[in-house]
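cron nightly-structures :: item 1 of 1
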Amino acid sequence: MLYFLGQLADGLTILNVFRYITFRTAGATMTAIVFVFLFGPAIIAALRVRQGRGQPIREDGPQTHLLTKKGTPTMGGLMILSGLLVSTLLWANLTSAYVWIVLLVTLGFGLIGFYDDYLKVTKQTNKGFSGKARLGVEFVIAIAACFFIARVGSAPLSTSLTFPFVKDLYLNLGWFFAPIMAIVIVGAGNAVNLTDGLDGLAIVPVMIAAASFGFIAYLAGNVNFADYLQIHFVPGTGELAVICGAMLGAGLGFLWFNAPPAAIFMGDTGSLALGGLLGSIAVATKHEIVLAIIGGLFVLEALSVIIQVASFKLTGKRVFKMAPLHHHFEQIGWTEPQVVIRFWIISVMLALIGLSTLKIR
């Protein structure tokens, strides 16, 4: 809403700052932080009362978790999503189709995660929403989002897969664009979901990825920067930097309460939504492959589960002591803080590699 104050700049030049994406991104970040700080304790208290015994802990997981994490409330994603939504609506240009597409994917995936968390908490079981049904709903949302992304953009780039390091190389997917790119969004959502297993483990890599894609969105949406860096110019995507700023702020606020020992868990409500957000922004900005680099930690976590399941079904043997990957390192003797901080370091390194693709052409 504040964006429209910039339209009054001709009468009052001080309002001109509301036209700038950089200013509004900073405003969105600060607004989201303050919102989560102010309302976070009340949300945690309400969830603790309603959930009673909190999130069920996997009995086949690390045994220490049964002692240290039992009784902790979940659905902390509600804190992140509420801060993100309020901040985005306040600071973003609400005439941007990209803003609404990304918000609807985020909220849609958040609702799926919320239902899954609700079933787990009420039934006190690790089995929530049916896996096949959940994936089916996720794909419906993701395909619809990709269809509208293609409609908003300009052909042939709007239906193409682009490649890092090479400016003029792209593959026009045509009618296959929506279903193929939906895999990116659904994959991102579930990869972040698998990563969310230790206090602070998922939220910091998500913030690192959000900050990286906020930068990418701003550059891709600016014709001068895009031309200078020889990346594909995608008009309108610069506004997605505001959403990334809101995500960064909401994530920082959440981390205050999620830092070990966590007062609340993100739950599927947050992890699915944030993964969907990253995936949809990557598709909109034409940096789908770069997402696999910047979000490489999420890819590794997802691959560890796929490899573990495939190996056990085919050979009866496990490759890892436990999957996802962070549990494997716990089993070989790393403490929880060691796993979390080392994974954060890996995320920073991967983000730097991903951002380097903007210049290496």
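cron nightly-structures :: done
Residues 262 and 349 are 26 Å apart (CA to CA).
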